[in-house]
Amino acid sequence: MINAEDEYGQKLVKVSKKHGSKVLTYGLHSGDLHADKVDITPRGTRFDLVTPEEMISVFSPLIGRVNVYNILAASGAAYARGCKTDAIATGIASLVRVPGRFERVDCQQPFTVVVDYAHTDDALRNLTSLAREFVQRAKEKRACHYRIWMRRRSRPSQASADGRKPPAEAAISSC
User: Fold this and answer.
1) pLDDT digits over 32-61, tens only?
2) Crossing angle for the helix pair 65-80 and 121-140, nearest 10 degrees?
3) How far is the C-alpha of 79 from the C-alpha of 44, rounded, in Å?
4) Average pLDDT in the 83-90 region?
5) How much of the chain is in helix, strand and coil states, percent to nearest 5?
6) How far apart are CA 119 and CA 4, in angstroms?
């Protein structure tokens, strides 16, 4: 399985095919296996998984585009090994969140609380992007009272690749 939407993945596809390997690709928008009608909510992710032979609707409690990519890659590996699509859909639905990775705290409160121990710059960017998507949806539905606050612990030795310290906290507010 090779990510068709990755620049290096495209090079891998060419080299693999040149050497006679059978190649399956995946991607959010393109590839032998891809996602259609992706709907990411604070409760989970729903999308149509399109395979070379059919399309199946799937739901996963995992949240975010990165998880859609991971689900597509794993589904492609299962598909390549001959697993039936209904077994793949059942497997996707039974996935369990990794503790501390976009984990919802549900105490019947009228708002959403999420814990995520994002510890790299890329993970923090993905988390912030996903939070902004949720805020935008809330604005479109006229559901105000959205406030997202993130705090990142940093140790004196912790710095990004360019030597800058990571941001200590970020906030996104609506209304």
Assistant:
1) 999 999 998 878 899 999 999 999 999 998
2) 110
3) 23
4) 93
5) 35, 25, 40
6) 27
Cα distances (Å, whole numbers) of residue 4 to 31, 96, 140: 6, 26, 32
Are 128 and 171 in contact by the 8 Å Cβ rule? The answer is no
Q: Which residues pair with 26 in a beta bridge?
A: 3, 33
Helix (H, G, I), strand (E, B) or coil at 141: coil
Phi, psi of 136 (to 5 degrees): -60, -45
pLDDT score recorded for residue 81: 94
Q: Report the C-alpha gap between 116 and 49 in whole angstroms.
A: 27
3-state secondary structure of 171: strand
CA distance 15 to 29: 22
- For residues 112-141, b (16+ Cβ closer than 10 Å) or e, as one string? bebebebeeeeebebbbebbeebbeebeee
Q: What does the mean pLDDT of the chain come to?
A: 80
Beta-bridge mates of residue 147: 173
For 108-135, what is each residue's pLDDT tens digit?
877 777 777 777 788 778 777 877 777 7
Q: Which residue has the tokens 């940093």?
A: 154
Rounded CA gap, 75 and 174, in Å?
Answer: 37
